[in-house]
Amino acid sequence: MLQSWFLGYAAALGIKFTSSVDDVVWLAPFLTSRDSVATRVHNSTVYIGICMVQTLVAMVIAYSGNAIVGRIASGVNSAWTTEKIMTVGAGVLLALYSLKLLREYIQELQEDNDNENEVERPTEIELAPNDEHRRTLQDSEQLIPPEADAENPPDKDSIGNKEQVSKGASKRREALYCIAFIGSIDDLTLFVPMLVGKGFDVVQLALGAFTAASSIVMLCIFIGLCKPIADFLSRVPLFLIVMGFATLLLIRGFSM
């Protein structure tokens, strides 16, 4: 009895791990040592939580009626199987999402260039070689001792940098939710038939999925602890990561 239960648990663990091990491609950049511990804990919780939600959805589908189960579990030889349709569909959705991220990335580059031009333009005017009067005033201002820090106005550049960091963190959180949810849709095509066929029960699936998702998170954290790898992953634009994962899903889907 106990042995058969562990066999079912091992089956659920193996299916979830093998079907989701490619998540390391996109999840590792969210769990590097350059991120704070709180950020890594949050991202890990989000990933594991979404995996468990997908597991719950599979349970609902498996026990919601023979008609729905039949459509998902069965495949027609002359047509695409449900697994292939969902895998390719997830790849297409991620590819479209990567295009959205690419557009935002280009817009951010343009905004950064515009901000740099706005900052540099007045400096060039003030330091023009023919404008001796302004240069003299600038030299005289440097001789005046600075006032106390409490009386100095806030630095606009630092405020702008904080806003950019906050905006970037918000976009990364949004991307994490989207990629994790879309990327695990194809798990339904594996979980539902196994639940219907009594390959494992609900408890075994839940524990197996949780263990597999936690193992993938630990693997990503281990990869991110290596500073050169963490630095490299942090420099890679997010749209490239999503596009690469979408390509993997499309290749896997069309090869089924």
Automatic annotation (TrEMBL):
Q: Name the domain of life this protein comes from.
A: Eukaryota
Q: Where is this region: Disordered?
A: 112-166
Q: Where is the composition biased (Basic and acidic residues)?
A: 118-138
- Keywords noted in UniProt: Membrane, Transmembrane, Transmembrane helix
Membrane-spanning residues: 6-32, 44-65, 85-102, 175-196, 202-226, 238-255
**Record's keyword annotation contains NAD:** no
Specify the protein name: GDT1 family protein
Organism encoding this protein? Alexandrium monilatum
Q: What is the lineage of its organism?
A: Eukaryota, Sar, Alveolata, Dinophyceae, Gonyaulacales
